[in-house]
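fwd from M.: "can u put these together and see what the complex looks like"

so here's what she sent:
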Amino acid sequence: MTTPVTPYQVVIADDEPLARERLRQLLARHARWAVVAECRTGPEAVEAILAHQPSVVFLDIRMPGLDGLEVAGAVAGDEGDTAPAIVFVTAYDEFAVRAFDVSAADYLLKPIDRERFDRTMARLEARLRSGNAPERQADITTVLGGLGTALPPLRRFLVRTTRGYHFVDASDVEWIEAEGNYAALHAGGRVHLVRHTMKALEARLDPETFVRVHRSAIVNAARVVRVEPMGHGEYRLHLHGGARVDTSRGYSDRVLALLR
Amino acid sequence: MFWLAGFAAWTVLALLGTTQTAMTLAYRGQPVQWPRLLAWGLLDWYTCALFIPPLLWLVRRAPLERASWQRRLPLYLAATLVSAIAKYSLTVPLQRAMFGAQRSLGNALATNVVSEVMIFLGVVGVLHAVEFYRRFREREALALQLRAQLSESQLESLRAQLHPHFLFNALNAATTLVHRDANAADAVLTQLGDLLRHALRSDPRHETTLREELGFVDRYLGIMHVRFGDQLTVQRHVPDALADALVPTFVLQPLVENALEHGVSRLEGQGCVEIAAAHDGDVLVLTVRDNGPGQNVGRRDGLGIGLANTRARLAALYGAQAELRLAPRPSGGMELALRLPLRRAPAS
């Protein structure tokens, strides 16, 4: 028997003190794990995850500030980064649980079953030892995409800049452009990259405001000042602030809906 | 279907009328020319039928009802008279052309106008019967729909008591406490039991006293306190004099839950919920205030369903006498105000 050199670090995020304590109680029986931070709100969780770079994060889905899924999306990180493994914790979010099952994400249901908890920890330990964490990263994007419209609309984006993380209100975003696995948010003359697919964004943004007009473009309907027909069901949208976005024929119905 | 049945009935009438004429002729010993007689009869009756649609239109627009029949009767007399005259202005030339009948319009009107008006008045009577039956069926369907809506909203409000999210989080809190503070775990589980018993009661009454409703809310808040500790403060302003006021069963808890779920739980700092009862003349005013993020920050979600149910239920119970209003507070957060007629439970 060898003693562990350094324990795996854990961050717990839940707005209920007793729910956090429950996770601590259950973790106490696992010698290789150490809780480095407990958080009550979404923004606190993001901060703690960035500060501690833990191996595993237990994320409650319903939290003030940013929900657990938004936190997961924000810290999913870039390719090559060591993003933490996420274990979602939920009391009753059927839609989320379905998405977790489909994408094989780790999740625990409250009240948390000890045996299931132990199995999850054993699986995480095995995964950490073999070092194949990256496969988990893709999961988060899949999970968020799979959740569809069941969640409340995304109100703000957490974006990373050289000076740390900050929020961009969805209403400030003029349009969104697909860039590979990322989406470029155009807001007030600046461009922010977030790790979201167009499909996931379309599902999570308020459909009254954000309209998909092209395979790789979503526009904020409130920012459209002119719709210029280009023929063949294609249009050029002139946005407040000067940006121009071309639409494609497949989305012409939705472009026309803008005019109503 | 309606028109087809009407056409068939009318044809039967035409045939019967023609048979009557044939019998009269036979009795008088005159020859009966069936084809001619039939054609004549059908022409007579079918031209008459042309005036049924405008009469039906009139019956739908201005039916003879208890309150209005005296005013409307002249209208119907005029309409049937005009129909009779119009009918003969149409029939007589046709009869002359088709059968070579030596008949003037004046003669036809003089001999037939009274009986024709009677026939049209009979038609008006039948159309009224049809129309009133149709309205009766519609009202019946509406009443059925209202009843279904009521039981649906009862069911929904019952589900709101047992909000699975609340239930599972409470159980999770209890599993934590079991390891640390057995008495506290005990308290959570008994409170949860009380809540479940209350919500699962097999004969949910429509109304209960404010006292009882507040007792239910207290047990609910007791569990919320255990879950959230000092993040949550609750203030209550309910005068004793209003304790026996009648309120819809389960009305308050969903409102409080709404304030907690959509107001306070979205808040990153301290949450405060204020529950107050007051009376404004003979109106009972219940208010639930929170200091949550208010309306601007995506409160649309979830808010809709719970409150829509409460609204539907209030409308079914009190009609226009009750109202539920959600308004932002100047100091931040939201205020839910429920106004309903103030009635007290009979002393038991």
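replying to her w this: Chain B has two domains: 2-144, 162-341.
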